[in-house]
Records
---
Amino acid sequence: MKVNDVVSYVVEGQIAVITVDSPPVNALSNAVRQGVAGAIQTAIGDTGVGAIVLICEGRTFFAGADITELGKPPVEPTLRNLQLVLENASKPIVAAIHGTALGGGLELALVAHYRIAVPSAKCGLPEVNLGLLPGAGGTQRLPRVVGVAKALEMVTSGTPIAATAAKEAGLLDELAREGDLRADAIALAQRVLDERRPLRKVRDRTDRLDEARGKPEIFADFRKANARKFRGFLAPEYNIRCIEATLVDQPFDEAMAYERSLFNELMADSQSAAQRHVFFAERQAAKVDGLPADTATLPIAKVGVIGAGTMGGGIAMNFANAGIPVTIVETSEEALFRGLRIIRGNYETTAAKGKMKASDVDTRMGLLTGSVAMEDLADCDLIIEAVFEQIDVKRAVFGKLDAIAKSGSILATNTSYLDIDDIAAATKRPADVVGLHFFSPANVMKLLEVVRTKDTKPEIVLTAMKLARTIGKIGVLVGNGYGFVGNRILAARNAQADALVLEGATPWAVDKVLYDFGFAMGHFQMRDLVGLDVGWNAKATASANVREILNEMGRHGQKTRGGYYDYDDKRVQTPSPVAMQVIEDFAAKQGIVRREVSDAEIHDRILFAMVNEGARILDEGIAARASDVDIVWVTGYGWPKYRGGPMFWADLQGLPTVLETLNALKAAHGDAFTPSPLIERLVAQGKGLKDA
Ligand code: T1G
């Protein structure tokens, strides 16, 4: 019988089966909680029922609280009150898990008396990824079944564990047969009934906690080992404190109150708002608005990659990883062999780290075919060029491709900055041309800017966005303009960083401001890491700026143990007096009288220049949403996730404040800070960038 729209109830023999069907992920919404609570009360009152199974339809067991309801006034039964209904039930309850039992979903399973899952299921508490902690007893119950050390790792990483590992850890009682979860859960419930097994409550268990008593070093060592990863984030530390609370000699409910208080603090903090924003923004970015309703995706059964260098090799790996055969073309056997050898080396390293099976190395290498003839790409459904970043070179490649590629093949360029309309014009099929801007290392970085030109046809846009997901990337659709979205904002940061060090700041002062803001590394550190000579054309320009001069001195960054910083043989950097002298001399030649530059000036000039450029990108339609700009910079450039991205951060400052700051910066430092007209319009309308 239907308890409500999303919960149904049936009795089979002595077993009541409560089934939840609330797509897409059976999130514990108000309706779900109300339905489950009602169904349990029915089962408890039904004298013919001896035990209860709680199971979900669709792709997964409860995937957590309904994130869209977080922060809104609670509706009864709250998740914690629903948990009390299960935990205090007078009849045994079996939670039957498939898909991903996450967050509140796993916390609900933890108040059932028994837990069973199919081997393909996963169990996790990913709240930390939302800037939160498991707020329904997860930090108090999980350690009681898997132990403190395992619980620490699970709640602070947010990474789910496989059902088999969960069974071994003590989180699950049984594994069901794949595809027979319902039957096996009913059978377990019947055995619990027949064997009169106890109505055991996880909250009453202490045996797994005893393993950690008197060992404060578990927490000290854990904090130390993860200091770098957790730097700047609030949630991991709050999760650790809640796990520590399980060892305090206090009633369970006091520990629960402590967990709730820390949860509420996190909920109220901008970090969680930022991380929840990123969660939804990432999913929103995958959606393409405005395409004709009947737009269909094209089949991609075979891929061609031109260039087996760093980018080409990494790009090819993405498709091999997804089981898609790739033909890689190079200009010589030697370059081809070198590229394939590097790919194999990458796979072997991954396998040696246990991150893939050793047998997969040959499987994936088997999907890669090398060639020195572009003609071998004739039957590819998608061809991606990753050749030298020079417009004439790329146009020549596309001219050849036009004559070789089969009709309907997608012709993609991996260019970082160049005008793709210009590249497409080298073909007779500009509508088949799209940009697929991967980020180095291409087989690792999640971001993929999908660049549509003025001619790119809808089915290619849709196919490229779907392909991003297929190869495990976060695809963001962007327009064709200098630097697209990510690099264009980076160029704005470059301009201010370079100006600041000429005017009086040091590279290390600039880097510290960005590091303290939450970037994993500073601007000049990143330049040294990537290599100052990337895109450097020694013949074209001489001493045009500090970077060129450093290149001319052979200071290309980390790889030459000297760039803006000096590096020891362990690549530990120290500020370079040589680079500082180059900066001072160049400033003098420019007639710049260096001065004291405060950290506040560095902070405002760099961050507000980035925000302003993001607003211009939005205003020009190069990005469809402010949240897309956020995803590009959080995913591809290390903007700290707990600050939500440049657009979210700007709205957090308040757009009137942003406008006021830009005008002040313009007065002090010139027209580069002329506010984007979009910001002026939104401020006049009392809106934020999110409303653009
Ligand atoms: N609430 C609401 N909507 C959700 C949701 C959730 N928990 N999880 C996913 N969705 C939506 C998502 O926005 C998308 O919507 C669709 O479902 C498919 O998602 C008290 C407070 C479950 C592994 O953090 O990790 O419990 O775009 O594209 O790739 O302690 O979704 O289709 O309209 O990601 O197959 C804790 C978050 C919540 C899990 C599926 N739970 N979700 O991945 O599909 S906080 C989580 C995921 C909590 C308690 C605390 C993934 C997934 P749309 P998708 P997928």
Note: The two ends are 46 Å apart (CA to CA).
---
Amino acid sequence: MIEELKRLVEQAAQEINQAARQHDLMQLKSQYLGKKSAVNGFLQRLVELPTAERPGFGKIVNEAKQKLEALLKSRLETLKDAEYTQELQSERLDLSMPGRRFERGVLHPITQTWRDIEDLFLGLGFQVADGPDVEDEYHNFDALNTPQDHPARDLSDTFYIKDDVLLRTHTSPVQVRVMENTKPPIKIICPGRTYRNDNDATHSPCFHQVEALVVDEGISLADLRDMLNHFAQELFGPEIAVRIRPHFFPFTEPSAEMDMVCPKCLGSGCSLCKETGWLELGGAGIVDPNVFEIVGIDGEKYTGYAFGLGIDRIAMLRFGITDMRLLFGNDVRFLRQFR
Ligand code: PHE
């Protein structure tokens, strides 16, 4: 029996040392040391021995059990160590690996232009004013001296939301809002979104304007001209002059349209300026005394000028974009070019 037990222990020891996973060890444990295990079987067989030999053999069986238990324990530790090392290996960080590149976004050409224009005017002492995109008829038309039957009020141009609520067709209502709340001197610009029912290569239903308003004592057309020249030259270069042509706006008197020398051909005529040498920039004029009266500014004491420029048009000129719809198409391949 002693021999039998020895062989069993040897076999168990071998299997334990070869076990590759913790799970296998648990099985071996129950197989060799469990209640119904072969080793325990020897204890049950004690009765087969003569009484005198029983205590001696019992001791041997218990020693065998202790030996196997110790073996199991040390093998378990070895396996745990190995697993831990493996885990560490597999999770090892290679700090020399190159990092993942973050894609940097690009500011939309309109945003770039908008910010550059803002910077330019801030540097000249202007403040930036803001007003709502959803405007009332009063601020968009009435207070700007625009009569009921003016064609700009036509449904085909203006997006109406309700009877007297609309999407502002220009940034000029912000002039009114500022003058209602501010005493002269006033020196503001207002960049913003504007809306008209127009859609082709040079018109978008949603577009951007920047309005400027200067009100003080002794402001004249010469100041307006100066400012426009300065603006065009800062943005497009020293050879770019601005001219103003007589025009009509209900809220300015006199009114003018402004053109600038075509930055592509510098005035000699090309396809961009349709061979005229000039490109249209926007509208301008001297604030109409009627508007001063409506907002409660003393038109005897103060004069002012205002102008409104198309930001999209300026962005197109700066970046050589020929179709305005590209600006609003959200095609990243197009937008990525403006780094
Ligand atoms: N608001 C006018 C337009 O959108 C432009 C303008 C602004 C004209 C200021 C005169 C003074 O057409």
Note: The CA atoms of residues 180 and 296 lie 7 Å apart.
